[in-house]
């Protein structure tokens, strides 16, 4: 009931503003509104820079994809609708190992963060595990990672199954 009363008060205030709109567009208020309309104290959001990733399947097929700085590799797979069977089944919640990827040593060393204990636990369940394995859902792309190649294992293990 309290929610209904709160909604009624909110509705009345919105309707009151709409009915009083003509007051704010009168000749006395219009110059004030026009001068304040263009003044903004927030900075404009800059466009995120584009990054490229090449996925190399076990059969040698190369898939090029684009993303943005700040995207995870899982985001890039999903946003580009790349068909990697079962990839990212848990949607990045660290409850499976289906987004397991293998990096070259150079790229692995350049990754912006170390794997967490939770990621390492999931990687222990992945097939074809290497010293440079990571979960794509945990890799946030930076401009420094633009153009990387990642190897996709031939099989996946969904740890949830």
Automatic annotation (TrEMBL):
Molecular-function GO terms, alphabetical: 2 iron, 2 sulfur cluster binding; electron transfer activity; metal ion binding
Stored Pfam families: Fer2
Primary location group: mitochondrion
Keyword annotations of the record: 2Fe-2S, Electron transport, Iron, Iron-sulfur, Lipid metabolism, Metal-binding, Mitochondrion, Steroid metabolism, Steroidogenesis, Transport
Source superkingdom: Eukaryota
Any single Gene Ontology cellular-component annotation: mitochondrion
Subcellular location: Mitochondrion
Co-factor requirement: [2Fe-2S] cluster
Limits of the 2Fe-2S ferredoxin-type domain: 51-156
GO biological process: P450-containing electron transport chain; positive regulation of ecdysteroid biosynthetic process; steroid biosynthetic process
Primary role: Required for ecdysteroidogenesis in the prothoracic gland which is necessary for larval to pupal transition.
Family membership noted in the UniProt record: Belongs to the adrenodoxin/putidaredoxin family.
Designated name of the protein: 2Fe-2S ferredoxin-type domain-containing protein
